[in-house]
Each structure stands twice: as C-alpha cells, then as structure tokens.
Amino acid sequence: MSSRAPVSSRAQRGISLFIVLAFPALIHAQRTITAADYARAEKFLAPTVNGLVVGGVVAPTWLPDGRFWYRNTTLAGAEVVVIDPVKRDRQRCDANATTCVESAAAIRRAHID
Asked: Which of 15, 29, 42, 69 lies 20 to 30 A from 1 at CA?
C-alpha cells in the first residue's frame, strides 16, 4: 500500500488550509469608505435617476368640472392626460395641452385659481 493520500483528500485539505489562512486576512482588509465613495453613490439616488424613468409617478390636479389631469413622461416626450371619470374618458394631449383646446383652457384656469 502507498502512504500517499488520494488526490481528492489532498485537495480538500489544501482548500481547508487556504480558507483557514486567508479568511482572517480578508476580514482585516476592509476598505475605508471615503467622501468620494459617497459622492459616487449619490449618483444612484432617486432624484438623480428620476429622469430616466418613463411613466413614473403622477400627481393629479382636479378641475372644477370634476375631471382631473396629470403630466406624464413617455418615450416620445411629455404629455398631459385629462381624465373624465363621469364619461369614463381619457384624452391625451401634447405637453402644453394645445391639442386639447377645452382641456387647455380648463388647465390654465386651474393654475390661475
């Protein structure tokens, strides 16, 4: 019989030895976080990336006649959407609401009042 250990057993011992010796070094090699790290992380916070989101959060504005409108971001640009809950109608306008003549007037009046 040979006094040599099987290869798989030898490999297991080598891996175990590596883990035992390397683990304490990995724990003590923690990186110090700098102001530059925080500045880099700030680039990924919500206010910075909101412009990259299409169709995100909307804020409805109610009109005196019971309808409401909101500004929406699409891949084609901004649009104004006017919702009439009574008629169950949804009307899309361009960003300045010039394509929806009556809605544009109501929206302007809502901003003035």
From this structure: 15
Which of 60, 105, 108 minimizes the C-alpha distance to 84? Answer: 60
Which residue, among 95, 28, 105, 21, has the nearest Cα to 67 in the 3D structure? 105
**Within this chain, do residues 21 and 69 fall inside the same structural domain, yes or no?**
no
My answer on whether 57 and 42 are in the same domain is no
Compute how many other C-beta atoms are within 10 angstroms of the C-beta atom of residue 103: 20
Do 33 and 12 share a structural domain? yes
Residue type, 42: E
How many whole angstroms separate alpha carbon 101 and alpha carbon 84? 15
CA distance 21 to 18: 5
pLDDT tens, position by position, 11-21: 788 777 777 77
